[in-house]
Amino acid sequence: MKRAMYFLDQKDMPTHWYNIQADLPEPLPPPLHPGTKKPLTPDDLTPLFPMELIMQEVSTERWIEIPEEVQDVYRTWRPTVLHRAYRLEKALDTPAKIFYKYEGTSQAGSHKPNTAVAQAYYNKQEGIKRMTTETGAGQWGSALAMGCAFFGLELKVYMVRISYDQKPYRRILMETWGASCVPSPSPDTKAGRDMLEKWPDCPGSLGLAISEAVEDAVTRDDTHYSLGSVLNHVLLHQTIVGEETRKQMEMADAYPDIIVGCIGGGSNFAGQFLPWIRDKISGEKPDLRIICVEPESCPSVTRGIYAYDFGDSAATAPIVKMYTLGHGFIPPPIHAGGLRYHGMAPIICHLHRLGLVEAVAVHQTAVFEAGVKFARTEGIITGPEPCHDLKVTIDEALKCKESGEAKTILIAHSGHGHFDLAAYDRYLSGQLEDYAYPEDEVKKAQAELPEV
Amino acid sequence: MKRAMYFLDQKDMPTHWYNIQADLPEPLPPPLHPGTKKPLTPDDLTPLFPMELIMQEVSTERWIEIPEEVQDVYRTWRPTVLHRAYRLEKALDTPAKIFYKYEGTSQAGSHKPNTAVAQAYYNKQEGIKRMTTETGAGQWGSALAMGCAFFGLELKVYMVRISYDQKPYRRILMETWGASCVPSPSPDTKAGRDMLEKWPDCPGSLGLAISEAVEDAVTRDDTHYSLGSVLNHVLLHQTIVGEETRKQMEMADAYPDIIVGCIGGGSNFAGQFLPWIRDKISGEKPDLRIICVEPESCPSVTRGIYAYDFGDSAATAPIVKMYTLGHGFIPPPIHAGGLRYHGMAPIICHLHRLGLVEAVAVHQTAVFEAGVKFARTEGIITGPEPCHDLKVTIDEALKCKESGEAKTILIAHSGHGHFDLAAYDRYLSGQLEDYAYPEDEVKKAQAELPEV
Question: What pTM did the predictor assign?
Fold first, then answer.
């Protein structure tokens, strides 16, 4: 019998998140205040986040205990399964061994609840009654809606209007979990009203939605704000994924030669690879390759400048040192909405600068070609973001076929594409757009980096 | 630690389907030929089905081995998880222990692939190159598309036109797995062309789609037809679900007092309860309650006549003894499309006649109320069909709260509702229709039963 799924018993579920800041060869450059451009202090952040998360953001403790209440909720869907992709291997006729850790069985369909649940918990602990966040296509908003439902918190999601109108499914998900969701710009905040006065039909943007969610949070004592990627504490919460995978790969008597994952804000892939990279930092596994995959049309790491830039397009969020295409850069409308970000998690950028991870950019049509191949061999309909992983995995597996090497490839598969089928339809009917690297737009945006 | 998920290792996955026909106190009444009204012979069925499935239809062997190739495919998503619904129990403040076996993690999102994969395999073994089937909303068509992709078979799905136009997502699923899908009535068959000539804008019906799929299959030597529920061999393939659950309940040191599941054609729930009912037949567990849940608007078992009737609305399928609302009955357009069937699997009807299972009918609004409660406690967005289970489970759990009994309730949860969110939207916005029992329409349809 060929075991194609590795289950981890709940008694063996990791009880601690792994904090890479304990093992970084050099510390991270500090984030700066968007107004003063001085290093951020915890006090700058208290209107937005609970103190536990602020401390996690800068902690250098190696292991941070997952609160029992959070573990309890994790156990409604975790540990997730590690799969061996025998059928894909066979279709490719490759000696490579392909594994994928699949986060699509969370109730929200992705890795996002790993941090949503933790964030809701810490806010609840601090006496917060209500949270706000922004969402584009709705992946993050729906995950946080579930987290808030589980801890009895109110949630208001500011959803970019064009997505609100065009993609009702994730709005319905949020409402089913009890959140309220309004299109942004909304008349509920000053930022929203100002925009609606100027431009009543404004389709909205993630930058504006952030401004609304932050304004709502800082102007109410009972309310905090939440972010679903990029920040250190978000990546920290995602390490449950990689820690589980380490145990499951051990069950499979395997260790990865290559780990592949897509990066938008970076939290999904970091959640998988951070628990492995410590073996590379320690020198125990010098040859471990960690490949970050980006869209050709929004290649922050492969084409970005390593510089201090605003985390958001509205230039109101903290300034962080990262690879950036410029905070004013608006990526082409690829279907992988979660990868349309001008910057990248500072931790990933830092590790790339240190030569510990590599990055590659791929085209949208090639990405869906890989997604269809995966669907017809393994069955799973993959979200547009992790389809990026599949493209690079197939490329690497075909290199193994040529070289005859039986490498072990591990995919950080972040979730399903059940709400992204329109993109598959366009691919299958030959109508899927492709986008080149928008060099001129990036250059323009990179000319507008803040002076620090 | 409270273990909320029970995983079964793949080495412990059942290797045999359980055939209830070995243990029935009385044999099933034979199905009849729709033309001659004589008992069907295997020869009548060979244009449609491979011989292995025809033999399984009438087999009285207790255990039927799952072919290794089918097990191999099952292992891409099986064994599925048994959950303990601690959070729902707590919200209900009930001493009842609620478990649910969840089939929503199959790649198609339901229990349907359990038989789709097996049927594709047996057809492939018999040298068949191509299959046909009909589908309403697309749940079955998409599962068979996956099964056929895995065994390299072509598939043509005749999809009821109104669903084809209104619900593109499951069509895209089918196409992603490589099937071709046409709206029925189609110009590709005589049945379709005849209808289009009379009524060019005909919205289609399941009965007509069956006629097209059958005509396509019988007029081509390389093609067979496939059905996704009702038949004995379909229920047989679904017993993998209950056999797994038995092992998992043992891991949880529990045995159900009540098993709850919805019935449309009956294959989902039978797949769960048939492996348990043998303990009731043997006298070992005389008090085991098995509750079949139907929609109030289509209550085949609770309000049907036990009689010989056509399996399809077009009156071309075999005549079987079952509870029926009349093959001409057209159920109201409830969102649980999979429960809109005038009849019921003969095995379930027979067991009900023998007093071994009970049935209850519930209203659509109550069903979605239960679905939302489940979403906000357990997280999972449940399909409209298994939301019926949740309604009755909550009722039974609240009875336990009153009586103080800590009963063990097991739910046959057939899958997610990711493609049914519009129904949740209608419920949450107070616009969900409810439907009373359509007594007059049923009486009219029941007056047209065939004379046998």
Answer: 0.97
